């Protein structure tokens, strides 16, 4: 089965292939599939935005399962910012070093117990017969007082785990995928893909 994932993010594609298992599926990014289109993500939830992306690509590729995700960081003390605007927070071209420093600064004086946050990932699928599915995965944690770790990407260096007291950027890719929001959502979606295969579509 061919899967096209609506992203151009190389880091995200690496995680996707590790979690879904590229030995079983032919998994391509939009670029690898030769698809180039601008998608306006004007939904109000992670689920809406992931479906918008999946539907847009499905209109251009009829012979594959189209997957798309919308993910982000919600910080409770900041009214769940940056939320669905996580990738665009402070501008799409702003480095995550600057974004992370800004969020830590905005939480200056906030005690650890009140720095709760979560990563959210909604993964949507449009199957070749038009069937749509959407699942959500989350991981709870808090925003640290300084960046930590060299692994991961995006907001990983400032997102700490309550039990381990380390950031997700400090974890190995395998350990991160086992507990991450994207790992949880992709494993749920993998089950949906297998169900689709099993009913003979």
Task: Note down, in words, how this protein is organized.
With 201 residues, this protein is an alpha/beta fold. The chain has one domain (2-198): Alpha-Beta Complex (Maf protein), CATH 3.90.950. Helix content is 30%, strand content 23%. It has five helices and seven strands, in the order E-H-E-H-E-E-H-E-E-E-H-H. Helix 1 (10-20) crosses helix 5 and helix 4 packs across helix 5.
Short description:
The protein has helices at 10-20, 46-58, 96-106, 173-179, 181-198; strands at residues 2-5, 26-29, 65-75, 81-82, 116-126, 132-143, 159-160. The protein is globular, with a radius of gyration of 17 Å. Helices cover 30% and strands 23% of the residues.
Please render the helix and strand layout as text.
Elements: E1 2-5, H1 10-20, E2 26-29, H2 46-58, E3 65-75, E4 81-82, H3 96-106, E5 116-126, E6 132-143, E7 159-160, H4 173-179, H5 181-198
Parallel strand pairs: 1-2, 1-3
Antiparallel strand pairs: 3-4, 3-5, 5-6, 6-7
């Amino acid at each position: 089965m061919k899967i096209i994932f609506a992203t151009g993010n190389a880091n995200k594609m690496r995680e996707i292939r590790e979690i879904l298992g590229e030995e079983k599926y032919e998994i391509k990014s939009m670029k690898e599939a030769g698809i180039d289109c601008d998608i306006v993500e004007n939904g109000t939830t992670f689920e809406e935005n992931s479906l918008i992306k999946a539907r847009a690509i499905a209109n251009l590729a009829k012979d594959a399962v189209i997957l798309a995700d919308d993910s982000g960081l919600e910080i409770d003390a900041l009214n769940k910012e940056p939320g669905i605007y996580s990738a665009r927070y402070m501008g799409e071209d702003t480095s995550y070093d600057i974004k992370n420093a800004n969020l830590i600064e905005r939480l200056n004086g906030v005690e650890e117990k009140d720095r709760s946050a979560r990563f959210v990932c909604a993964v949507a699928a449009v199957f070749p017969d038009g069937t749509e599915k959407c699942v959500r995965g989350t991981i709870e944690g808090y925003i640290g007082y300084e960046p930590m770790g060299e692994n991961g990407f995006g907001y990983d260096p400032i997102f700490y785990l309550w039990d381990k007291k380390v950031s997700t950027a400090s974890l190995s890719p395998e350990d991160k995928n086992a507990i991450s929001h994207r790992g949880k959502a992709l494993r749920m979606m993998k089950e949906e893909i297998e169900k689709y295969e099993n009913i003979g579509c």
